[in-house]
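FAQ: What does the model actually see?

It sees only this:
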Amino acid sequence: MFFPLPIELQIDNDTCKAFGDDTVVKSRMKHIDVRQEWVQILRDHDIFSLVHVPTIHNLADIGTKILLYPTFVKLRDMIMFWRPKTGAVNTN
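And it is asked to produce this:
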């Protein structure tokens, strides 16, 4: 199966973007450094590109962040299917 490259990886985390753009020096945490090397390999081979997604368009944020009401409603409406009321339902 063919996947077009680079794969667009949508993120909203500035630290993640910095690691992906290679603008961060080595950290003091080994587990971060190991992950950073893996990300560098993928980036250097043009496997993916990082794209910033603001909270207002990030559906994952509805389950991971405390949102302002307007933002919550917008994201909720993006994932929920609203069916208009068509009148009383006859159960007979």
